[in-house]
Each structure stands twice: as C-alpha cells, then as structure tokens.
Design goal:
single chain, alpha+beta, Beta-Lactamase, five-stranded antiparallel sheet, 12 strands, 48% helix, 19% strand
C-alpha cells in the first residue's frame, strides 16, 4: 500500500467524527476505524491506564471484524496484564505521541511473551500512540497498530496523531460532562415520573430531557410539538411567553410562573423551578436545569385580581391589563391584544403598581399570581426546591 500523509479534508472529517463520538459513545469504534485508516494502520485501540502502574483498566478497539474481536477478548482477559506498551505509555506525559520502534528494539521483541505469543501470531507488530489526561488516577492511550510486514509508523503519521490528540482530549471532557449531567438529572427524572401533574425537565439549552406521562395531556391540549427536543407551542404569543420564562429562569436562577389557556378554554399555571446544586462542588453541570410543572386551574388569578382591583380602585382597563400580566404576557403582547400602543400599556402598568403598592411587575405577579393557586402540588417545590439534585 502507498503510505502517504492524509489530506487536510480527511483530517477535518475525522475531527468531526471525534466530537460526534463524544455524544454518541456507540460511534467510538467507527471513529477509531477512521483514525486507523488516516495513519495507514490496521486497527486502533483506546486503553484506560492506571497512572504509575500502567495497569489496563479498560480497552476498546475499532471495528476489526469478528476474528480480532475474539483476539481482543483474549487481550482483556489474559494479555493486558503482560502488555509492555501499557507501562511505557503510562510513563509518558499527557499530550505525548510516541512510536514503539523507538523504545522496543528487535532484541526486546524477541524476549517478550506478549509480542511472541500474542501480537505477532496475529500478524501485528508496530504501534503509534498518543496519551491523554483522563482523570486524577488515569490516563488514556490511543494506540494505532500496523502489520508485521508493514514499515514502522512514519513521522507524518506521528504528526497527524499529534494534530488530532487535542480534539480527542476535548471530546473526552465533553463526554465526562455529559455523563455527569445525566447523573445530575437522574433523581429529578425519577421524581417527575411519580408526579400526577404534567411535568418536564429541561437542560441548559431548553431541551426536554425527560417528561412524565401526564405531560401528554399538555401536548394534546396545546398541540405541543417537540422540535429537536424543544417545546413548541403553535400559539406564537404563548411560545414567546414560554421562551421568555425559560430565559428569565436561567438568568436569575429564580422560579417563574405564568398562565396559559388552552384552545379548549382550560387554564394552566406553568411553574419553572431551577435546580439548586449543593454548594462546594465547583462547577455544577445541573446549575441551569429547570423543572417545569403544569398545574390546572379553572380560573387562574381572576378572584385574586378582582379583590386587589377593588381595594386599589383599578379601572376596568387596568384590571384587564393586570389580568394579562398575571397570565404571563409582556407589555408588547398585551398592547397587541388590546389594540393599544406599548406606551399606553406601560403607563397603565405603572398606574397599577402605584395603586396596589407593589414595586415591580414581578412582585405583583409573585404575590397575586401565587396566591391564586393556594395549596397545591406546586407548594411542595415552593417550600423545598430542587436542592442537591445530581
């Protein structure tokens, strides 16, 4: 075969595969196969090594066919403990790229049971490896192997792996963070499955990580769709309110509530509750996760709004604007609904706040809107938010 350096476009394709395998672990063998082809190897292997001792803790190989799969099983069960490359790689600093022929000469190979009884009988001899930092007690080695009748790995092959190594390192960090995030959401997932009210759990990007069976009622009532995992309401005003509430909850790490009326007239209170990670754990991957609870209400906020209106002597127009505020609508949306200017609605909001004695819209919504729900399932989360979810 012609052992030629890879083209830049091939390297770029491989970089994409490396990052794809971070989110799809099942794609790792295919990524290793692509790496092996890039450096003109026969197969590639990833080893997780114990720092210092070089003990092999885990091994994964590229797609190499059923025959070598069996040979790999023998490697894991018998030969990993005798693999001289493992201790050699564990002694290298992270970020290093090395070739076995620079360390193991023919004299050593002739006396090594690993080579003489395992690797060479399979037809393999030469190795090119790079080392990553994978934890306080472990290193990860990416090993490419060539057949015994092929030449040792060239300088260009080592240079290609050196270029790719930082991407493998970043992909590893992504994979670790995703695993931590999955663990962070596990307890919350179990919790929402047990709740009788519609719930969903979103990640930092607003994607639906998990939803319970009761949420199907919301999807049917509002004709909700999940587009690339994100909730989509067909009503544009409701969609804007939803996105604004998500954004505000992410930004403030405070709970938010708004009201939503389904086409069938049924009203729902929508509560967004940010998770609160335990302190002292450094960066918390679940810091921006949100539990969303949909609670049915026959007439959300109306009685409370009317009682406030009577005491504060609100005009009919101000009462209508206050009701819309408690339903989660912005001044711009309210103006559109009423056929008024935004400035007019803002002036009415200012008057409402002055008459009721509240300092801000948020304070008004928190006091009046929350009281309209009384004692409910949501009160569980108000008194004991998602602290320590992991």
């Amino acid at each position: 075969m012609g052992l030629l350096p890879p083209r830049n476009d091939k390297l770029l394709d491989l970089v994409g595969s490396i990052y794809a395998s971070a989110t799809e672990p099942d794609a790792l063998p295919q990524t290793l196969s692509a790496l092996s082809k890039t450096v003109q190897g026969e197969f590639a292997q990833i080893l997780t090594l114990e720092r210092g001792s070089g003990r092999v803790l885990h091994s994964c190989i590229s797609d190499a066919g059923a025959t070598f799969e069996k040979a790999h099983d023998r490697y894991v069960s018998q030969w990993a403990a005798l693999d001289p490359r493992a201790a050699w790689l564990a002694s290298l600093p992270p970020g290093s790229v090395a070739r076995c022929h620079e360390t193991f000469d023919d004299a050593f190979i002739g006396t090594s049971s690993f080579y003489q009884e395992y690797l060479i009988p399979l037809g393999f001899r030469w190795a090119l490896a790079g080392v990553l930092d994978s934890g306080p007690d472990t290193l990860t080695a990416i090993v490419n192997v060539r057949k015994i009748d092929s030449p040792p790995f060239e300088d260009w092959a080592a240079a290609a792996l050196q270029q790719l190594l930082p991407h493998f390192q970043k992909a590893h960090l992504i994979r670790v963070k995703l695993e931590q995030q999955a663990a962070a959401g596990a307890s919350a997932v179990e919790m929402i499955r047990a709740l009788p009210v519609p719930c969903l759990f979103t990640d930092h990007a607003g994607r639906c990580v998990e939803r319970n069976r009761a949420f199907e009622e919301i999807m049917e009532a509002f004709s909700v769709q999940l587009v690339i995992g994100r909730v989509r309401f067909p009503d544009s005003d409701l969609q804007n309110t939803w996105e604004t509430a998500l954004s505000d909850t992410h930004a403030t790490a405070l709970g938010h509530t708004f009201a939503a009326t389904a086409p069938n007239g049924k009203q729902w209170g929508v509560h967004l509750i940010p998770s609160q990670p335990l302190p002292g754990n450094g960066e918390a991957v679940d810091a921006k996760m949100i539990l969303v609870v949909f609670e049915p209400k026959a007439a959300y906020g109306q009685a409370s709004v009317e009682s406030v209106a009577l005491g504060a002597k609100l005009t009919r127009a101000e009462l209508e604007v206050a009701t819309s505020l408690l339903q989660g609508f912005s001044a711009k949306v309210i103006a559109k609904q009423r056929g008024a200017s935004v400035n007019t609605v803002r002036s009415q909001i200012t008057s409402i706040l002055e008459k009721t004695g509240y300092k801000s819209q948020r304070e008004l919504i928190a006091a009046v809107g929350a009281s309209s729900f009384g004692n409910s399932v949501f009160s569980i989360f108000q008194s004991n938010p998602l602290q320590g979810i992991r």
